[in-house]
Specification:
Layout (H helix, E strand, L loop, with lengths): L5 H8 L17 E7 L2 E8 L7 H13 L6 E8 L16 E8 L7 H14 L4 E5 L7 H4 L9 E3 L3 E3 L1 E3 L2 E5 L14 H13 L6 E7 L6 H9 L2 E8 L3 H16 L4 E6 L4 E2 L6 E2 L6 H9 L3 E4 L4 H8 L4 H4 L4 H19 L14
Parallel strand pairs: 2-3, 4-10, 4-11, 5-9, 5-10, 11-12, 12-15
Antiparallel strand pairs: 1-2, 6-7, 8-9, 13-14
């Protein structure tokens, strides 16, 4: 019987593609250790993204393949998730206790951006990551409601300086809604809004986060520019619907992030299809294939396509988004896949030199 070699082990592993990295584990740089003791083979892989619901099945598949290799009696595959810090803009100082910042944005309101941000944060937490969410939609904060935090709840203040984020469903949550009356509109000019965002970001006592999801306000204004200049964003996710008007505004969002050198991780298409609860008929109420066209036009990935579903809306309104309310549902699985893909794209990304941005008073 011929001896097992490292080359044979690597060749075996190269036959399998990680669906989130879209590479085999050897080419993706995930292989950390190969130990061959006669007919016993031990392999350790390291994923750079949160994949708690995926890694055991992945390890089992690779183990079975290795045990079919000639000369191997027993194989052991260990898969670890080790999340490193990344940022798009090289000159921006890192946030304390935050490894990766993910901006969830849209060109216009009403496309399900906040719902996507909430479910993304919860899905990342279910994958084993330490996650926070910041509601940067100063004029229309909604994350408090989505995470089931009672109206009028105020954050604890530590050392007369730090705001302690709320805890809900295993996620650290901070929102302007926790500091103001829900019925009082924020009648602020741009500089005040930008200052409030920076205060929330830098004066919140985030507790060792792997990912901080920022629910951005719609559009391409002051808050987006402040984020690009002051916050080390690892990547952005653009949320849209297939409707032509929404796609037009989403294109502006993609262009804006590219101009300020923040990587666009991909596009999430909401309300892609409506399935009648009575007869099962599928109907594309807002158009068809818009997310795919947008992604193809800008050379980015369509990360997820979600249906127009009453359950998504009802569960968010009740303070338990789909990922938590119905974790085994098909929609929840789409959010989990989205979370793993977002983490994988960040892990694959590199630092980008960011140009200085000058804003005149004219």
């Amino acid at each position: 019987m011929s001896a097992v070699t490292r080359e044979a082990v690597e060749a075996c592993l190269r036959q399998f593609t990680d669906p989130h990295l879209e590479q085999d584990p050897v080419s993706a740089g995930c292989l950390r250790e190969v130990d061959i003791q006669g007919a016993h083979v031990s392999v350790r892989l390291e994923l750079g993204y949160a994949a708690g619901l995926f890694k055991n099945g992945w390890a089992q598949m690779l183990q079975m393949a290795l045990e079919n290799l000639a000369g191997v009696d027993r194989a052991k595959v260990q898969v670890d998730c080790v999340i490193e810090a990344h940022q798009g803009q090289a000159q921006v100082p890192a946030l304390a206790n935050v490894k990766n910042v993910i901006a969830v944005a849209s060109g216009k309101g009403g496309v399900g951006k906040s719902t996507t941000a909430a479910n993304l944060a919860l899905a990342l937490a279910r994958e084993g990551a330490r996650v926070g969410i910041l509601d940067a939609d100063i004029y229309g904060p909604s994350q408090g409601i989505m995470f089931g935090i009672a109206e009028g709840t105020r954050p604890e203040v530590r050392e007369q300086k730090w705001l302690v984020p709320m805890q809900a469903h295993g996620v650290q949550v901070m929102s302007m809604a926790f500091l103001t009356d829900d019925n009082t509109p924020m009648v602020w000019r741009g500089p005040m809004v930008s200052g409030a965002l920076l205060q929330l970001l830098t004066q919140t006592a985030w507790d060792d986060l792997d990912y901080l999801v920022i629910d951005m306000p719609p559009g391409t204004g002051d808050i987006q520019l402040t984020l690009a200049q002051k916050v080390p964003v690892a990547g952005s996710v653009i949320v849209t619907t297939p409707q032509d008007l929404a796609l037009l505004d989403a294109k502006k969002g993609v262009e804006m992030f590219r101009k300020v050198h923040i990587p666009v991780l991909g596009v999430v298409e909401n309300m892609a299809v409506h399935i009648c609860s009575n007869c099962g008929h599928a109907e594309h109420l807002f158009g068809e294939g818009g997310g795919e066209k947008l992604a193809a036009q800008y050379g980015v990935e369509l990360l997820a396509s979600l249906p127009l579903s009453m359950a998504i809306r009802m569960q968010a309104d009740e303070g338990k988004p789909t990922t938590i309310a119905d974790p085994e549902s098909q929609i929840a699985m789409i959010y989990q896949d989205l979370a793993r893909k977002v983490g994988a794209r960040i892990a694959q990304g590199g630092q980008i030199v960011m140009p200085s941005i000058e804003i005149s008073e004219d």
